[in-house]
């Protein structure tokens, strides 16, 4: 991929997790700068009855009704603790020019307030999502650089609530019991 000024910047959001075994988890969600349309300090969220726990509700943004997703909850970070303030990122995924047949998906992500714009690294190493107990259907990739781990969420899969075959089997098993 050819680097442009737009691809050289990424937005990293720190995942708020309890320290595991006395160590500091340097875990971040990662988005391209082009994906992030706006960072909000407050959002008026309206609940959605019978929705998944990760769906905080829906909110209006510039005349659009968008789902508000608690991304840490969606990734089932069971040791997540809600401390400090949240920030809300309005993000999009899909083709920016919206060619025929391509859709643009938007949502509001509820995240920690620890948000930084950083330069994309020249090199990084790939991490297997299962090492972090992350469902592979939820990520586009997991990378390691500078002693931190960066998760690139698959927003289309998250918005469409896709489940892996492992999750489907687990859900079917619990329904049968």
- What is the name of the CATH class? Mainly Beta
Mean pLDDT: 79
Please state roughly what percent of the residues sit in beta strands, choosing from under 5%, 5-15%, 15-25%, 25-35%, 35-45% or over 45%. 35-45%
Biggest β-sheet: strands ordered side by side in the sheet = 8-1-2-11-10-9
Question: How many structurally independent domains?
Answer: 1
Architecture, according to CATH? Beta Barrel
Tally of alpha and pi helices: 4
Gap between N and C termini, in Å? Answer: 49 Å
Sheet having the most strands: 6 strands, mixed
Question: Could you characterize the architecture of this molecule?
Answer:
Helix content is 14%, strand content 38%. The model is unreliable at 18-23 (pLDDT under 50). The chain is mainly beta and 177 residues long. It has a six-stranded mixed beta sheet with strand order 8-1-2-11-10-9. The chain has four helices and eleven strands, in the order αβββββαββββββαα. It starts with a helix and ends with a helix. It has helices at 5-8, 71-74, 155-159, 165-176; strands spanning 9-14, 27-32, 36-40, 55-61, 64-70, 86-93, 105-112, 115-119, 125-126, 139-145, 148-153. The protein has a single domain, classed as Beta Barrel (OB fold (Dihydrolipoamide Acetyltransferase, E2P)), CATH 2.40.50.180.
């Amino acid at each position: 991929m050819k680097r442009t000024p737009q691809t050289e910047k990424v937005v990293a959001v720190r995942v708020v997790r309890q320290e595991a075994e006395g160590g500091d988890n340097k875990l971040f969600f990662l988005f391209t700068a082009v994906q992030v349309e706006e960072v909000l300090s407050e959002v008026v969220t309206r609940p959605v009855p019978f929705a998944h726990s990760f769906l905080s509700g829906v909110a209006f943004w510039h005349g659009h009704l968008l789902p508000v997703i608690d991304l840490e909850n969606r990734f089932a970070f069971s040791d997540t603790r809600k401390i400090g303030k949240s920030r809300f990122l309005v993000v999009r995924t899909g083709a920016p020019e919206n060619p025929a047949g391509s859709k643009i998906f938007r949502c509001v992500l509820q995240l920690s307030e620890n948000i930084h714009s950083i330069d994309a690294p020249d090199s990084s190493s790939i991490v297997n999502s299962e090492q972090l107990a992350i469902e592979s259907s939820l990520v586009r990739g997991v990378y390691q650089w500078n002693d931190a781990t960066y998760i690139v969420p698959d927003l289309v899969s998250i918005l469409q609530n896709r489940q892996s075959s492992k999750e489907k089997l687990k859900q079917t098993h619990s329904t049968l019991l």
